[in-house]
Amino acid sequence: MNLTDSTTIDSAVTGTGAARVKLTEIFLSIQGEADSVGWPTVFVRLTGCPLRCQYCDTAYAFYGGEWFALDDVLARVASFNTKHICVTGGEPLAQKGCFPLLQKLCDAGYSVSLETSGAIDVSNVDPRVVRVVDVKTPGSGEVGRNRYENLDVLRPEEQVKFVLCSRADFEWARDFVRERRLYERCMVLFSPSYGQVDGRDLAQWVLDERLPVRLQIQLHKILWGDTPGK
């Protein structure tokens, strides 16, 4: 999807009062992360993010994009004829239009997940959406942006994700998970930062510590590398 350039996220409402969102891309791929890994999934990538994690692999979504009415987004999603939808970014919740978009996708009968940085309140997200919430580690450079209140509202079918940049990040996340007993609330995902931590090393650390967490490797990167739109 070739979208025109724009640099400002303004109000998510048109002059007629209809909600809209600014999109970087919509594409069909294989879900590479979280509990729905492996499913053919339509990714709806919203433009913009207030964070700057040092390992970010979607910095191209920080700027540009094009405004779409929500019904136009749903029409594009429907054209792929796929059940699973993932709304991602950037940080999708930075746009007010994301909330009604998630609701409309659920109303249309899709299985909807949301990938969010954990820096914005997730409590008002439609309860039919599965929220995948990051906890930023010190190695990300954005640990101070964590909104820990988000963890208190997660349901058992939802997930908390830690992207780990080093052994020190692993130890920080290990202690965080144990102290808060996050694994009793929902699934906890540990993921190696691509190119910074070897997946085999992380697997061994998890086994050595007997941690009740789920190791995830980014399947889409194994299949296609760092190709945008995959």
TrEMBL record:
Describe the function of this protein. Answer: Catalyzes the complex heterocyclic radical-mediated conversion of 6-carboxy-5,6,7,8-tetrahydropterin (CPH4) to 7-carboxy-7-deazaguanine (CDG), a step common to the biosynthetic pathways of all 7-deazapurine-containing compounds.
| Pathway note | Purine metabolism; 7-cyano-7-deazaguanine biosynthesis
Q: Which organism is it from?
A: Steroidobacter flavus
Where do transmembrane segments lie in this chain? none
> What is the name of the protein in this document?
7-carboxy-7-deazaguanine synthase
Its EC number is 4.3.99.3
Q: Where does [4Fe-4S] cluster bind?
A: 49, 53, 56
Question: What reaction is this protein's catalytic activity?
Answer: 6-carboxy-5,6,7,8-tetrahydropterin + H(+) = 7-carboxy-7-carbaguanine + NH4(+)
| Cofactor binding: number and manner | Binds 1 S-adenosyl-L-methionine per subunit.
The UniProt annotation places S-adenosyl-L-methionine binding at: 55-57, 90
